Amino acid sequence: MINEVRELESYFCPYGHLDLQAACKIWEQVELCEQDLFEVIEEFRESCGYDSFESLDPVYCVLDHILQMARNHIEEKTGYDFLKDFSGPWAEIYSKANFLDRSYDYLEEAIKELKEKISLKQYAELMKDKYCNYVFTKIGIGAK
Q: Residues of 63-80 as b/e, b for ≥16 C-beta within 10 angstroms?
C-alpha cells in the first residue's frame, strides 16, 4: 500500500518534498505570496514547452525568476545588463540548476565588473529592491 501511495503522490507532486520546501523558503525570503510562486513555476513550465511539471526543478525556477527580476532592475537603474554586457566570453552570473543545491554560480570577474558599474547611490537604491537585495546577498556584493 505504501508504494501505491508514493506512486500516486508522484503524479500530483513530481518533486520531492525537500525541493518544494526549499523553493518556498527562498520565495518567503523575497517576501512574495504563494500564488505568485505557482504562477512563476507555471510560466517557466510553459516557456520551456513542458507538458507537465515532472522535469522542472522548482528551486531553479525560483532562483532564476529572482535573478531575472534583479537583472531587469539593475539594468533599469544603471544601464548595465550583467548577462549581455559582461566583458567576458559569456554570461557569468546565473542560476545553478541542481535541485536542493540552491545557489547562483558566477565568476569573480563578473562580480567585480558588476560592482564597478553600480554607483554608491545606485547601490543604495538597488538594495531597497527585494530581488536585488536577495541576489546581492547571495553573490557577495556588500556595501560599497
A: bbbbbebbbebbbebbeb
